[in-house]
């Protein structure tokens, strides 16, 4: 099990107990989550990412960012990328649907299930509708404001998840994503994340965009996380 293994398993079981899930139901859901997040085509959207998002939620909550439904927010972190097929525009909607089915079948109360699915849906465009979604979205996009080497490692992993595309097609699609992000206001919605990581987002995006402008080098080589 990726993403700190037994610690992540304990994290799930503690959350499931809080929510009143049956022991059998909780174990079945965890088995499904592990199976999904360890699919061989994943490089970034793995259990490591789930763990990072959970850590981010805890950190933002500890910094004083409000959380109205902390358990549903944590559940949404577990489920937001449970279905991930590179290039499929329906990943988030399908993840929300799977969350609904799995949690309801595991004995979780209906209002928590509904709130979790709604939070998962906000991660498609990262436009939050309240404080829980703001914390979740910021934790999900925290990598955009990480130090340069960590950001480039993320960028390389995204390329590896799209290995079905040749470099020409990948460069074109990724450039479009990066330009879209650069045209938006700062992607963070909490004061804590804006203060801690906001200043690094634009330089990271511009650096990746510059690296992808060199059509003569393979994308993997261009995204090597080495100092220059």
Write structural notes for this entry:
- The chain is mostly helical and 228 residues long.
- The protein folds into two domains: 136 residues, Orthogonal Bundle (Hypothetical protein af1432); 80 residues, no CATH class.
- It has eleven helices and no strands.
Helices, by number, come to 11
Sum up the overall morphology in one term.
Answer: globular
Weakly predicted, low-confidence segments:
none
What is the chains' assembly state? Answer: single chain
* CATH fold naming of the largest domain: Hypothetical protein af1432
Helix content class? 55-70%
What value does the average pLDDT take?
A: 93
Name of the level-1 CATH class of the largest domain: Mainly Alpha
The number of distinct β-strands equals 0
Largest sheet: none
Structural category is mainly alpha
Give the CA-CA distance, first to last residue. Answer: 35 Å
- Percent of residues in β-strands: under 5%
Provide the CATH architecture of the largest domain: Orthogonal Bundle
What value does the Rg take, in angstroms? 18 Å
Q: Sketch the topology as an H/E string, one letter per element.
A: HHHHHHHHHHH
What is the CATH homology-level superfamily of the largest domain?
A: Hypothetical protein af1432
- How many structural domains are formed by the residues? 2
